[in-house]
Amino acid sequence: PQAKRxxxxxxxxxxxxxxxxxxxxxxxVLVIAFSVIWRVNVYMLLRNxxxxxxxxxxxLLFLDMSFAGEKQPDHTRFIGPNVTSATNLHFSGKYCEECxxxxxxxxxDSYLRFNGSFTQLCRCHGxxxxxxxxxxxxxxxxxxxxxxxxxxxxxxxxxTCLTCxxxxxxxxxxxxxxxxSQAARKFYRNELMFLRGNTLEKRTxxxxxxxxxxxxxxxxxxxxxxxxxxxxxxxCLYCHVEKPDENKAGYGDVKLIGDIKVLxxxxxxxxxxxxxSVDHYIQPSGKIHRRMQRLEEDLxxxxxxxQMGKLTCVTxxxxxxxxxxxxxxxGSKGAAEKYKHRIPEKMCKSCHGM
Length: 354
Prior knowledge:
Layout: H1 9-48, H2 50-71, H3 118-121, H4 142-147, H5 161-164, H6 167-171, H7 175-179, H8 182-187, H9 189-192, H10 203-207, H11 233-236, H12 260-268, H13 286-299, H14 313-316, H15 347-352
């Protein structure tokens, strides 16, 4: 009777032990049942389809051998008995023999294996021309060669891993780099990659020491005017079928080359839950739509919907450069504002009545 009181530890242990017994018994029964079913099925297969069973067993053995092979160190590619492609050879100072025939001395012969071929020396990284950030073992053009600074060395006139990476730096033991947190690793990413130059710079800074940065800039379709204020017609065609008449055309008159949402997402990415992590690509309610119409009249602007009557990117953002649409037209509002909001500073509050 004492053990039946609420909250009594003895009662809790009693109930728990009985529950454990029931669960153990149920598990035992299930194991026996599955064992019997499995044995019967195997017997029937052996009796009726012995060839298929033999093929099935052979397949299992083959898979087992394959997995066993994967677990073994790759002695054909690495010198150390326990070194695999998953081993981090960098910043430890322990794996010199993987790249050198004998210990090198800086400034003298490096005794590199594979005749100094960095595509083989850096074999852990799986270099192929289609998946690496930069081709190697190539002779740069005379134009490129003229831009390559002396501190980015070529080997026999070719670009190699050594051109951008200071290989010697990773040969030294650096416990701090191996132990640092994920955030620190991100900050010191260039140091982890032992890139040449200032390791705290952006990685592209190294790229543009050889490449002309101007040739790699993304097209900004929102810069739509020349220095003297004329519309660049080619920029219009990035979204429009033809250049609209900016003095007369309204939103309903323009012809776009595709869905306005998709046109914006080509550069800005798929923001399906925007703004405030809420999907706004919907038809506004009657209440919201009437409020939007009043805002258009009161503030002298447009809040256009797409062809399906849904809110879209240009409902809130003016995609045009200031000066493309004359200032006295409703469609010009917001072009010069931050984020190109048609209703600056109170875009959300104006429509939602907050």
